Amino acid sequence: MNKQSGIHYLREHREAGSSNPVPAQVVRIRDTVVAGLGDLLQGAFDAVDDSLFELANNARSNNEQNRYFEAMREIRIKRKGVERHFQNAVAQLFANPPQSGSVAADESLASQTSSDSLSLVATTTWKNRLPSMP
Predict the structure, then answer these.
(1) Triad 117, 133, 127: Cα angle to 5°
(2) 1, 12 in Cβ contact below 8 A?
(3) Non-local CB neighbours of 83 within 8 Å, separated by 6+ positions
(4) Cβ neighbours of residue 33 under 8 Å, at least 6 residues apart?
(5) 26, 42, 62, 87: which sits with the fewest CB atoms below 10 Å from its CB?
(6) Distance, CA of 98 to CA of 109 (rounded, Å)
(7) 6: left (phi > 0), else alpha (psi -120 to 50), else beta?
(8) DSSP H helical segments within the chain, as ranges?
């Protein structure tokens, strides 16, 4: 970027102000993970596209077929942005890994498993909920 233009991007300031440089091994691992997960995400998008195309071919009406094609178009338009956002989010987790003892993590865990929400269940009730085995 030309510094004389007067435009300063926040991303550059955050990266320049990073007090914890990431070790080279972590950078290599991050790049490998981001590339691998990116490939998996691309495969998922390709599979969705193929499935929608197949559904459009088997559609019973023209209206139904148009809805599948519209969904395909919408996914294709947003695909690159989703892939970029996903890769940036994964890379950001490597730059700022979540702390296991953080207050936010503890609060979310506590809200998921509260002792007030637990209760005893009668034997017949949980047996009825189990799938029947042949």
Answers:
(1) 30
(2) yes
(3) 38, 41, 42, 45
(4) 90, 94
(5) 62
(6) 14
(7) left
(8) 10-16, 24-57, 62-95, 103-112, 123-129
Per-residue pLDDT tens over the stretch 20-50: 677 788 888 888 998 999 999 999 999 999 9
CB–CB of 69/56 below 8 Å? yes
Find all residues with CB under 8 Å of 30, minimum gap 6, and list them.
Answer: 22, 90, 91, 94
Please tell me the distance from the alpha carbon of residue 12 to that of residue 84, in angstroms, as a whole number: 18
- The token duo for 7 is 């435009």
CA distances from 37 to 26, 34, 116 (A): 16, 5, 39
| Nearest residue to 75 via CA among 32, 97, 44, 100 | 44
